[in-house]
Amino acid sequence: MIEARIDELGLSLPPAAAPLFQYVPVVVHQGVAYVSGQLPRKDGELLHTGKVGEDVTVEQAQEAARVCILNGLASLKQELGSLDRIERILKITGFVNSASGFTKQPVVMNAASELLVEIFGEMGRHSRSAVGVAELPSNTPVEIEMIVAVK
C-alpha cells in the first residue's frame, strides 16, 4: 500500500545503500526502527555538494532532503521486508551543512516532512529537529536520520 502511494506520487525507492563504515542502516528494537543518517545519493553519487546558502540553494537542499527520505525508506524496506509494517513516523533529525549566517534549516527540512505526510498521511506527521552544522560527510548539504514505529 505504501509503495503504491510512492508510485502514485511519481517517485521510486532506490536500492538500499550499503554502509561505508562500521554501523548498520537500521536497528529495530521493541517496535521502534532507528534509521542511520541518510545522504542524498542517487545512483551512488551525491545529488549536490557544499554548504547551503553558499554553494547550494535552499531549493537544491530541499530536493536533497527528499532524496534522503527516499533513501531512508529504502533502508527500512530492506530491513522490514515491507513499508506497510511502518505504523508511524515518530521523528526525523535533519542536519544541514550551513554557510555562515544561514538560518533556514527548518525550511530545508520541511521538504522532508512534507514528503513523509504525502506518503503516509497522518501516520507521517512527526516531531523534528533541524540542525545547522559546520560540516557533513562528503560535503553533503543534508543528512537525515529517522525514528519509526513498526508493527
Annotate the secondary structure layout:
Elements: H1 2-8, E1 26-29, E2 32-38, E3 41-42, E4 45-46, H2 58-80, E5 86-97, H3 105-120, E6 127-133, E7 142-150
Parallel strand pairs: 5-6
Antiparallel strand pairs: 1-2, 2-7, 3-4, 5-7
Helix pairs in contact: 2-3
Element string (H = helix, E = strand): HEEEEHEHEE
Low-confidence stretches: none
Number of helices: 3
Helix content: 25-40%
CATH architecture type: 2-Layer Sandwich
Could you please say which CATH topology applies here? 60s Ribosomal Protein L30, Chain: A
Apparent shape: globular
- Rounded mean pLDDT score: 97
Strand order of the largest sheet: 1-2-7-5-6
The first-to-last residue Cα distance is 15 Å
CATH class: Alpha Beta
Main beta sheet, described?
5 strands, mixed
What portion of the residues fall into strands of 2 or more residues? Answer: 25-35%
Short description:
This protein is α+β, with helices and mostly antiparallel strands. It has helices spanning 2-8, 58-80, 105-120; strands at 26-29, 32-38, 41-42, 45-46, 86-97, 127-133, 142-150. It is built from 3 helices and 7 strands; from the N terminus they run H-E-E-E-E-H-E-H-E-E.
Description:
The longest helix has 23 residues, at 58-80. The chain has 151 residues and is an alpha+beta fold. The model has no long low-confidence stretch (mean pLDDT 97). The protein has a five-stranded mixed β-sheet. The chain has a two-stranded antiparallel sheet with strand order 3-4. Helix 2 packs across helix 3. It has one domain: 60s Ribosomal Protein L30, Chain: A, CATH 3.30.1330. Helix content is 30%, strand content 28%. The protein has helices at residues 2-8, 58-80, 105-120; strands spanning 26-29, 32-38, 41-42, 45-46, 86-97, 127-133, 142-150. It starts with a helix and ends with a strand.
